[in-house]
Amino acid sequence: MKRYLALLTILLLLTTTVSAVNLNTEIGTIQADFESQVIPKPFDKLFGNERININIKDTELVIGLVTENGKVTQVTTTAVENPSLNIYVSEAFIQKMASSSNPMIALKEGIETKEVTYNAVGFFNKLKFGVSSFFVKLLASFGSEEQTIKKEGVTKGVEDVESVPIVEKKVELVEDKKTEVVKDVQEVQIEENVVQMTKTGFSPSILKIGVGESVVFENVRGKVGAMVIGTRSCAKMKSEALYNDETFEYAFFEPQTCVVVDGFMTTQTMRIDVE
Known about the structure:
Blueprint: H1 7-12, H2 20-34, H3 44-47, E1 51-57, E2 62-68, E3 71-76, E4 85-90, H4 91-99, H5 103-112, E5 116-120, H6 123-129, H7 132-162, H8 167-188, E6 192-198, E7 201-203, E8 206-209, E9 214-219, E10 228-232, E11 247-251, E12 256-262, E13 269-274
Parallel strand pairs: 1-4, 6-9, 8-13
Antiparallel strand pairs: 1-2, 2-3, 4-5, 6-7, 9-11, 10-12, 12-13
Helix pairs in contact: 4-5, 5-7, 7-8
């Protein structure tokens, strides 16, 4: 799970200790492991076509990474030219994250406390990566899932030892716990709802969803562009320009009424009711 959650997570989990010597020695292994890896949804919408430099603070070490069409295509120990995103993180924080029992939560806290910072290059990238709260909440969701599974593993181990004399009881307990784990994992999965951006506007123009669900906006206008811009309670929701069936996904984690405007057809709006 750790290796496939998000591009930023992948980068910060490349090594347990960071130094120019170690990373240069291991770059061949790192390239073999991560080049051509597919970035999972919904993180591919954020990191699917980027040129990223990871700058290790107080050192001269830079990890360069290029992604195209949702896949990692290049990993180097030198900066890539014309980056779209610069990330800054300290060696101490990477070591802290690597030694954490829950790296997802550690990364979430690092972003919130500014131990991990980033600078997007270009207008559309600044809009896209300005929705950092969405990424942070997704990390929290996946971190909770991982913590639940780890805790469950410990619980089953204790019960197995205690219930050795009673074989039937041990089997029943394990089955019950497995059922609970599946339920917990299902609860953190994000449901998707599709809204098409047509030549006449949004379809549907009114959408009702539940807390924890996401909405995928799809441009079906052909060569005509589209842009998702949230207002009111969802003012942080902004997409880059979308063309030729490109999509943008946004998740909602609290009840609200969100009015969405099309940046290319500014007279067209829709309403999302999150209940």
